[in-house]
Write a structure and sequence with these properties.
93 residues, mainly alpha, 90% helix, rod-shaped
């Protein structure tokens, strides 16, 4: 918004926009716009990286839970097989 106001002031001022007195103001305004854009881009980048790290952490946690569930299921199957085998032996005797 300040860049627009400076542009309007330069265009409606008593000197033509290309006057030497306006170059310093134009340069400072351009630098302020560039710095502002760089800060905005950096903040957007940091936000995106944080979201990506959060997603990766959630994915790791979900993978760990899935592996625990698979291990429990494997143990339950093994235990079922052992118990079934012992019951079969008891029935045979």
């Amino acid at each position: 918004t300040s860049a627009v106001l400076v542009g309007i002031a330069i265009l409606t001022g008593p000197l033509p926009w290309y006057a030497q007195e306006n170059f310093g103001l134009l340069a400072w305004t351009g630098m302020a716009v560039a710095v502002g854009d760089a800060v905005r881009s950096r903040r957007a980048f940091i936000t995106a990286m944080r979201e990506r790290a959060d997603r990766a952490e959630r994915t790791r946690e979900e993978e760990a839970r899935r592996r625990v569930a698979e291990e429990r299921l494997r143990i339950a199957r093994d235990l079922h097989d052992v118990v079934a085998h012992h019951i079969a032996l008891v029935n045979v005797q």
